[in-house]
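Support request from a user on the community tier.

User writes: "When I paste my C-alpha cells into the form, the page sometimes reloads and wipes my input. The last time it worked, I copied everything first. Here is what I submitted, just in case something in the input itself triggers the reload:"
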C-alpha cells in the first residue's frame, strides 16, 4: 500500500513539473517534454491510486469472505444444534408414559431435561436425560444405572 502512495506522489510531482514546463514561455523550454511529463504523471498517479484501491477492495473482499465464512459456520452450527435437539426429543418421547405431555427445557444437543405426566395424570418433575440413540436413552433416575454413573456421563457429555 505504501508503494502505491509513493508512486502516486511521484506521479503528482511529474504532473506538476509537466504543467510548469507547459506554462513557461516556449523560448525557455519546449512544451513537448512538459506534455510528456504531464501525461506520464497523470497515468502514474491514476494507476498507482487504482492499484491501491484495488488492493483495498481485495482486502475488503478477503475480510468479507472471512466474515461470511464465520457467519456461515455459525449458522450451520445453529442448524445442527436444532437437528440434534429434535433427534433427542424423538429418542426420548417413546420412553415416556405420556409422550404428548412432554415438556423439554435446558436442551443442548442430545442432553436436556424433560417433564411429563405419569400414569395417574400428574407431572413427575423435570428429569435430566442423555439420548445418544433410540436404543440408548438414559434418564437421570434410571434404577438400572450404577450409583453416580449418570452424573459422570452428564459431566462428560453434557457439561
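"...and here is what came back when it finally went through:"
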Amino acid at each position: 500500500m505504501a508503494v502505491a502512495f509513493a508512486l502516486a506522489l511521484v506521479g503528482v510531482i511529474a504532473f506538476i513539473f509537466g504543467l510548469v514546463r507547459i506554462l513557461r514561455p516556449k523560448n525557455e523550454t519546449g512544451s513537448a517534454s512538459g506534455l510528456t511529463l504531464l501525461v506520464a504523471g497523470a497515468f502514474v498517479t491514476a494507476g498507482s491510486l487504482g492499484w491501491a484501491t484495488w488492493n483495498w477492495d481485495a482486502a475488503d473482499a478477503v475480510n468479507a469472505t472471512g466474515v461470511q465464512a464465520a457467519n456461515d459456520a455459525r449458522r450451520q452450527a445453529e442448524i445442527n444444534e436444532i437437528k440434534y435437539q429434535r433427534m433427542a426429543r424423538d429418542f426420548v418421547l417413546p420412553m415416556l408414559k405420556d409422550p404428548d405431555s412432554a415438556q423439554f427445557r435446558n436442551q443442548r444437543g442430545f442432553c436436556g431435561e424433560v417433564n411429563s405426566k405419569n400414569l395417574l395424570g400428574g407431572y413427575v418433575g423435570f428429569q435430566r436425560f442423555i439420548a445418544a440413540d433410540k436404543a440408548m436413552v438414559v434418564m437421570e433416575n434410571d434404577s438400572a444405572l450404577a450409583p453416580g454413573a449418570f452424573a459422570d456421563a452428564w459431566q462428560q457429555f453434557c457439561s
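Agent notes: The reload is a front-end session timeout and is unrelated to the input. The helical segments are 2-23, 31-92, 149-157. The mean pLDDT is 77. Escalated to web team.
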